[in-house]
Amino acid sequence: MKTYLVTGGAGFIGSNFVIYMLSKYNDVKIINVDKLTYAGNLENLKTIANNPNYVFVQADICDKEAISKLFKENEIDYVVNFAAESHVDRSISNPEIFVQTNVMGTVNMLQCAKEAWTVGDDTYKKGVKYLQVSTDEVYGTLGAEGYFMEMTPLDPHSPYSSSKASADLFVQAFSDTYKFPVNITRCSNNYGPYQFPEKLIPLIMNNTLKHKDLPVYGDGMQIRDWLYVEDHCKAIDMVIRDGVLGEVYNVGGHNERTNIFIVKTIIQYIKENVDSTVSEHLIKHVTDRKGHDRRYGIDPQKIKEALGWYPETSFEVGIRKTLKWYLDNMDWVENVTSGAYQNYYEKMYSGKQEI
Ligand code: NAD
Ligand code: TYD
Questions:
Q1: Would 273 be classed as within a structural domain?
Q2: Cys-Cys crosslink for 98: which of 2, 163, 211, 228, Cβ 3.0 to 4.6 Å?
């Protein structure tokens, strides 16, 4: 029985990972540590909440006492660090919390794991590993050609991606300095169930259903490389089990789409399946995001060749599954977007000029 300390397991990808692991294996124990910020929601986990192999602990990854206690009280084999502030727009208006959680929180997790796992000078309990869940955004932006590879230099532009790149450098430093057993995964944009509706796909879905404006930043020709969240979970599982210590693995499925294509796809889906009166007239091109990266594109060759990973869900299948999930779970959307989120949304979009 392996014990995983998963941080941020009440967020979008973390909750999908916890559900994925508990559905796939009977012999894993998951301890989910989450601060439950606006982005964390225990409703995401209600299908597995009573699983005997699952424990939830509300704590901040920056809290040394709380995290050390977890290591003292449990024989932890793996750490999977999802916990982060994850929204680029929020990082532009409030960068400090991104440094606190994404950088300081990662260093605290590394320190606590190192203290708990040390058995001698630069030697650790057998078989343990720390996996940092990172992002392709640390590589910066691409022109029309080329892909991000693991050796592409880090060149982050937003406060979010800068904080994630800083965290990656600390993970690398622990590997280089202390021979600490780590892996880093850098994945492209995820989509799927439980994504907080401030991100592009659920936001556009929710607004279209309500006949609200669809804010498209700038010309909408920015490109993201979309991966169905379950394929990301599968990659993380494989890297924990078989990834070579100290290595970085890029994760992506060659599913590049412009933002405007995504928005039009969602409108079309709703038009065909829910409400024939919606149309592209809802699209509003608004002031572009500051420092907006133009294109992301992952080269996943390394993880494919080394670990045999491949994406199982095509974009066409994944997007329909995702949009159907949101339609079937509109009460979830209402619950997570009530209260403080409304104020954020009004503030965020009232300042945006139509262009
Ligand atoms: P999310 O915002 O949906 O979830 C983040 C979770 O972390 C929430 O449950 C939140 O409560 C928790 N959290 C925040 N601060 C915390 C703290 N100080 N202590 C403990 N818990 C805290 O994010 P997500 O989209 O699920 O992303 C998860 C990870 O994957 C992040 O590290 C992100 O950088 C990375 N990532 C995301 C994407 C994507 O497309 N969403 C792509 C690649 C990598
Ligand atoms: P987002 O979902 O915030 O992910 P990321 O910034 O991490 O890629 O945004 C995806 C793309 O969609 C990005 O290019 C910004 C754009 N976008 C809009 O055009 N309008 C919106 O309202 C949002 C939230 C994003």
A1: no
A2: 163
Number of domains forming the structure of the chain: 1
Q: Which domain holds residue 53?
A: 2-198+227-253+291-312
Q: Which tens digit of pLDDT belongs to each residue from 5-41?
A: 999 999 999 999 999 999 999 999 999 999 999 999 9
Residues 36, 235, 227, 172, CA torsion sign: positive
Position 136 confidence tier, pLDDT thresholds 50, 70, 90: very high
Q: Is the CB of 199 under 6 A from ligand 2?
A: yes
The DSSP secondary structure of 25-86, one letter per residue, reads -SSEEEEEEE---TT--GGGGTTTTT-TTEEEEE--TT-HHHHHHHHHHS---EEEE--S--
Q: Which pLDDT does position 338 carry in this prediction?
A: 84
CA 12 to ligand 1 centroid distance, Å: 7
Q: How far is the CA of 102 from the centre of ligand 1 (A)?
A: 9
pLDDT at 341 over 80: no
Residue 304 lies in a domain: yes
- CATH code at 172? 3.40.50.720
Query: Quick one: which ligand is closest to 204's CA?
Result: 2
The atom of ligand 2 lying closest to the CA of 218 is 19
Decide whether any atom of ligand 2 lies within 6 Å of the 35 Cβ. no
Q: Is residue 116 part of a domain?
A: yes
